Amino acid sequence: MDDRYTLKGKKALCCTPPIIEYQGDIIEATFDSEPIGEGPNTSLLYINVKAPDYAGHVYNYLSLRQKFALLETDRQIGRVARILEERFAPGEYVLIVTADHGQCPTVNLSGGVRLDPIQIQEDLERRYDRSVFSLIESVVPSEIYLSRRAMADTGITDAEIAAWLRDYRYGDNIGPYVPEEAIDRERFDQPIFAAVFPTSYLERLASADLSAYGPGVFESDPLGLPPVTW
Which conformational region is residue 111 in: left (phi greater than 0), alpha (psi within -120 to 50 degrees), or beta? Predict the structure, then answer.
């Protein structure tokens, strides 16, 4: 594997069992140092166990890395349950475990190719980060959030970045998490995005007459929702 795609810094350790166990250590230390369950009022403690989510996004649930992350997370949740059992009587506590979403298999199993948001962020930062402020705030499946302070500091516009992304190719986006058998080399030169719209353009549509664009290719929303009006 090309070393330039190797995870560096915090990302390299994000989902490993020692990091998850360390979070368990911090949780137990919190019970020791904070007045949880003391006094007349009910205590509420939120714990975000991020490793399984991150491992799933980065490696997918079919990976052994996700298996190891889930196994250690399960062990640490059991550790929290034991802490509660030792410190409180039955009926004095409630432990609720929930998740924010599930996951699909890797897209290559259905003949598609993946879009790696981490690789996109690294490529954008390598090309445009010229400010003391970080340009990229977040990359999600549908948007890329930019820092207004960094843009103002450097003079970079969202339209300039959108134009660069419009020509972003599949071959540019192959990061460290893509197994060799999942890479479609015949698509290397194909653009990833059919279109990229900067916020400045979308904001102009708010006061525009959209009827000039015509009825569109879809006769109606499949869920029966009304059309968006501006």
Answer: left
